[in-house]
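User: Reviewer 2 asked us to show a designed sequence for the structure in our supplementary figure. I'm pasting the structure tokens here. Could you produce the per-position amino acids so we can include them in the response letter?
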């Protein structure tokens, strides 16, 4: 079931949609770029997506359906799970008895059709549609889920209004706050196992995962509960719930995370797994008492996520070479620095993926173990029983490791042990909280690590931030003088322009006013014009000159100046390169670098 180029050519010429020379030229481009001839014709503006889809449908004898403005019945829509629909560009849009009509872009995807047929136990009637038609239907998965969530909330609210047990529970919480009396475990357990409460929590998790959220914030206030998701590093309001469901939601999450149900005055931390046919997540839970109840934050970690490569993270050029060179060294220390949520752990795992070969023994001590990695011995910190970073690291050294990964250097003891491990024949990878690569060195000295030990062991420091990635549909523009004047308050524009020219991002004769940058463009799928994130980096290799500065206890500014003199590209410069390439916006760069 494939439309051959010659078939397409014959029909296009017969319909007078284009001339033979135009088709032959497009066919040549398709061969050179390894694209479908139809995609080339569309990109050249010779035909529209709808014209191509209708023509292919006619040639193949498959009905064409236009779904660009269609509202799909949620019952028909959810027959095909959203991950399958998104991955294979196939959606179910109508069910009649035992017949299921599905719209798709690729009529050759017989494997997916067969899978849906077996899963749904229905006769599948394939239809061809356009990319825009598929996008319109995919958007309705979220709308359907939000409607389902609203229905569950409404039903739960009605249930709670009639439920004397929950009224008693609410009164008990108020009493406990005012008189500090413990609540009964049995009552909380019963509320947590209430079916509507279970559905609310399950649906909340599912909704957040489909929205690509990394965190869920459940925040109680005087009269209601605010639910917010962190998506691409930015908190967004998701929904407002009635205050009366708070006790049940918190109790349910505590049950899942194996926390104390009757403890409302102290913070608690735990974790649990959420697993369905479509996804598998490890969820970290933090419960904190606040004035109006207990606030819950859940961090969502996809267990199925494979480690990204350094290139996929956005590291390239000389910075990539420096990291790869130092990863090949058998001893020493590599540090990654940045604020919370800047992607340090992801970068660590990308490095470990490079090192993870059969002849290398990798041992880690982490808090928490965020991702599982094959052939790696991962230890979870548990301070309650005395297993800290320091005690775990002390034991790891006796496990004959080649590579040691320490989740974070937080104190003097951990810093000293990590330095000593790198002195005794190990490659140590770790993270530290500072604002720049150069700032990591004074931070280690503040932790009472001897400067000569730092200079002897530290190989390279990578500092990073995450910026939101622009969608493909973005708006190009050039800077106005007033905009450049404002940006100059935060950046060295002359140095950045030099870097852009050296990296051949712009032409040698270009001035700032000649360079195209990009702004987000709102769409139905991505209202803010961003989707996903990319890193901006600076990589400080510890040279002989920098070793001398470390021993002299030089300031971060002095070390930074020497590193830049030796050719280090700063995060700001790397950010402007990515902005000029259209990966992100200048506004995003300024958002993360202005301190």
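Assistant: Here is a per-position design you can include in the supplement:
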């Amino acid at each position: 079931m494939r439309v051959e180029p010659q078939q397409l050519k014959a029909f296009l010429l017969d319909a007078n949609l284009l001339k033979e020379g135009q088709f032959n030229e497009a066919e040549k481009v398709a061969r050179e770029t390894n694209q479908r001839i139809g995609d080339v014709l569309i990109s050249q503006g010779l035909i529209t997506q709808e014209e191509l889809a209708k023509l292919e449908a006619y040639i193949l004898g498959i009905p064409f359906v236009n779904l660009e403005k269609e509202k799909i019945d949620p019952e028909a829509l959810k027959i095909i799970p959203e991950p399958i629909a998104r991955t294979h560009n196939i959606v179910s849009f109508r069910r009649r008895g035992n017949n299921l009509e599905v719209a798709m872009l690729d009529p050759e995807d017989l494997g997916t059709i067969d899978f849906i047929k077996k899963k749904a136990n229905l006769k599948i009637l394939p239809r061809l549609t356009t990319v825009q038609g598929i996008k319109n239907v995919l958007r309705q998965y979220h709308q359907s889920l939000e409607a389902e969530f609203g229905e569950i909330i409404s039903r739960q609210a009605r249930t709670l209004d009639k439920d004397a047990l929950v009224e008693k529970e609410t009164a008990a919480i108020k009493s406990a706050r005012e008189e500090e009396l413990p609540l009964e475990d049995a009552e909380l357990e019963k509320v947590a196992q209430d079916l509507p409460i279970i559905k609310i929590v399950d649906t909340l998790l599912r909704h957040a995962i489909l929205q690509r959220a990394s965190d869920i914030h459940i925040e109680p206030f005087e009269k209601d509960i605010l639910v917010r998701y962190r998506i691409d590093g930015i908190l967004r309001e998701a929904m407002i719930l009635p205050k009366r469901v708070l006790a049940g939601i918190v109790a349910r999450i505590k049950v899942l995370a194996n926390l104390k149900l009757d403890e409302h005055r102290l913070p608690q931390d735990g974790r649990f797994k959420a697993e369905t046919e479509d996804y598998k997540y490890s969820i970290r839970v933090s419960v904190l008492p606040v004035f109006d109840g207990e606030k819950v934050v859940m961090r969502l970690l996809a267990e199925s996520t494979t480690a990204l490569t350094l290139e996929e993270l956005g590291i390239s050029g000389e910075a990539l070479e420096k990291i790869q060179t130092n990863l090949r060294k058998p001893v020493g220390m590599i540090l990654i620095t940045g604020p919370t949520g800047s992607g340090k752990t992801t970068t660590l795992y990308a490095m470990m993926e490079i090192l993870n070969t059969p002849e290398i023994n990798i041992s880690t001590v982490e808090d928490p173990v965020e991702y599982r990695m094959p052939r790696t011995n991962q230890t979870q910190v548990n301070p309650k029983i005395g297993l800290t970073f320091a005690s775990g690291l002390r034991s790891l050294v006796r496990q004959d490791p080649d590579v040691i990964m320490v989740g974070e250097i937080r104190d003097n003891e951990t810093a000293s042990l990590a330095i000593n491990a790198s002195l005794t024949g190990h490659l140590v990878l770790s993270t530290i909280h500072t604002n720049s690569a150069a700032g990591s060195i004074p931070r280690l000295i503040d932790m009472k690590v001897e400067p000569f030990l730092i200079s002897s062991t530290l190989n390279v420091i990578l500092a990073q931030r995450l910026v939101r990635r622009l969608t493909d549909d973005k708006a190009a523009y050039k800077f106005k003088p007033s905009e450049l004047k404002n940006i100059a308050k935060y950046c060295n524009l002359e140095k950045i322009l030099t870097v852009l020219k050296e990296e051949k991002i712009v032409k040698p004769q270009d001035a700032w006013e000649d360079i195209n940058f990009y702004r987000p463009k709102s769409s139905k799928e991505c209202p803010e014009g961003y989707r996903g994130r990319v890193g901006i980096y600076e990589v400080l290799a510890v040279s002989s000159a920098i070793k001398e500065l470390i021993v002299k206890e030089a300031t971060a500014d002095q070390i930074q100046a020497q590193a830049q003199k030796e050719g280090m590209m700063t995060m700001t410069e790397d950010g402007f390169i990515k902005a000029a390439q259209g990966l992100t916006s200048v506004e995003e760069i300024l958002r993360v670098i202005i301190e």
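For the response letter, you might also mention the following. Confidence is low (pLDDT under 50) at residues 173-183. The CA atoms of residues 173 and 179 lie 10 Å apart.
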